[in-house]
């Protein structure tokens, strides 16, 4: 998929990014972030295709404080990506470059794009296909948590598909290290996937904070969404949607859920527990009977 190109999408000038250009030939735009653009690129020596995320860090666009924030966040993301390198269901960072004006992260090219787009095309997935995707996702989350990393932005847009329809978790921009017993307070993520404790924490300064359990709530939202074709928590007035999340208000409505197994509904209900202490861990979720069903 090639996106329309605007003047802000012009390629960085040669001098600012010489090292990157000597090795890679950037091609069409395949995605956009808030402060970044993603292009397909070709490794000049081998002809192999990759994806490059290009972030502009110039005073024209950002204040000095914002510049340093973007640089620091990207360095943190790069550090985490290097730490988790090699996991079969996490995107592989191939290369990174930093110039005075731009930062470049080179990744494996995931030709089938986002799980979000695949779901939009298919509307809803079968339990069999959902089982395969969720097993891979939970294995990735379990690996992150075992390494004291919390992702904080799990959603179908950040799950990519390769040629064999295998998933890779991407976009570690909100990820951070979290030691056992340590808590976070920052409000970040995507509204429909936010765990209740993130919202409560942002509204109550006496709240103790949140931990890696927020990733399992998001896994529950993703699981529900893959099977229903729509999210469990949605309202056109966002304040009402946030209240639904904090109260854990969702329903297995007809007709989408009529043919779904009680087993998968049970797993969803154990992930969408408002109390993080009651929520399944990634390891516990992988032991759930839903994943014991035969693949045939």
UniProtKB/TrEMBL annotation:
Q: Which InterPro entries match?
A: Kinase-like_dom_sf, Phosph_kin_gamma, Prot_kinase_dom, Protein_kinase_ATP_BS, Ser/Thr_kinase_AS
What CDD domains does UniProt report for this protein, alphabetically?
STKc_PhKG2 (cd14181)
- Which SMART domains did the record assign? S_TKc
Q: Where are the transmembrane segments?
A: none
Which residue intervals define the domain Protein kinase in the entry? 24-291
Arranged from A to Z, the UniProt key words for this protein are:
ATP-binding, Calmodulin-binding, Carbohydrate metabolism, Glycogen metabolism, Kinase, Nucleotide-binding, Serine/threonine-protein kinase, Transferase
Q: Look up the EC number in the record and give it.
A: 2.7.11.19
Reaction equations catalysed: 2 ATP + phosphorylase b = 2 ADP + phosphorylase a
Q: Name one GO cellular component term.
A: phosphorylase kinase complex
Question: Where do the coiled-coil regions begin and end?
Answer: none
One GO term (biological process): glycogen metabolic process
| Annotated GO MF terms | ATP binding; calmodulin binding; phosphorylase kinase activity
Q: Which Pfam families match?
A: Pkinase
Query: Which residues hold ATP?
Result: 53
The UniProt family comment states: Belongs to the protein kinase superfamily. CAMK Ser/Thr protein kinase family.
Q: How does it assemble?
A: Hexadecamer of 4 heterotetramers, each composed of alpha, beta, gamma, and delta subunits. Alpha (PHKA1 or PHKA2) and beta (PHKB) are regulatory subunits, gamma (PHKG1 or PHKG2) is the catalytic subunit, and delta is calmodulin.
Protein name in the entry: phosphorylase kinase
Organism, per UniProt? Phyllostomus discolor
Lineage of producing organism? Eukaryota, Metazoa, Chordata, Craniata, Vertebrata
């Amino acid at each position: 998929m090639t996106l329309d190109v605007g003047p802000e999408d012009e390629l960085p000038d040669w001098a600012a990014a010489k090292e990157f250009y000597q090795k890679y030939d950037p091609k069409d735009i395949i995605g956009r972030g808030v402060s970044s653009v993603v292009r397909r690129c070709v490794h000049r020596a081998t002809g192999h295709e990759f994806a490059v995320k290009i972030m502009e860090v110039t005073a024209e666009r950002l204040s000095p404080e914002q510049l340093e924030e973007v640089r620091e966040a990207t360095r943190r993301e790069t550090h985490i990506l290097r730490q988790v390198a090699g996991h079969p269901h996490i995107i592989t960072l191939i290369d990174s470059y930093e110039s005075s004006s731009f930062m470049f992260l080179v990744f494996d090219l995931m030709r089938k794009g986002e799980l979000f787009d695949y779901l939009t095309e298919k509307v809803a997935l079968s339990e069999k296909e959902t089982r395969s995707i969720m097993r891979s996702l939970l294995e990735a989350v379990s690996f992150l948590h075992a390494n004291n990393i919390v992702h904080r932005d799990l959603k179908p847009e950040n799950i990519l598909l390769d040629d064999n329809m295998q998933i890779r978790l991407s976009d570690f921009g909100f990820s951070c290290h979290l030691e056992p017993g340590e808590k976070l307070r920052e409000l970040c993520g995507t509204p429909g996937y936010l765990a209740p404790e993130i919202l409560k924490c942002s509204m109550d300064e006496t709240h103790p904070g949140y931990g890696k359990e927020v990733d399992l709530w998001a896994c529950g939202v993703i699981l529900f969404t893959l099977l229903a074709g729509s999210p469990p928590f949605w309202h056109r007035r966002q304040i009402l949607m946030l209240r639904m999340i904090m109260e854990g208000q969702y329903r297995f409505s007809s007709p989408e859920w009529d043919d779904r197994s009680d087993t998968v509904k049970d797993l969803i209900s154990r992930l969408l527990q408002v109390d993080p202490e009651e929520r399944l861990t990634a390891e516990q979720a992988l032991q759930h009977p839903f994943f014991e069903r035969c693949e045939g």
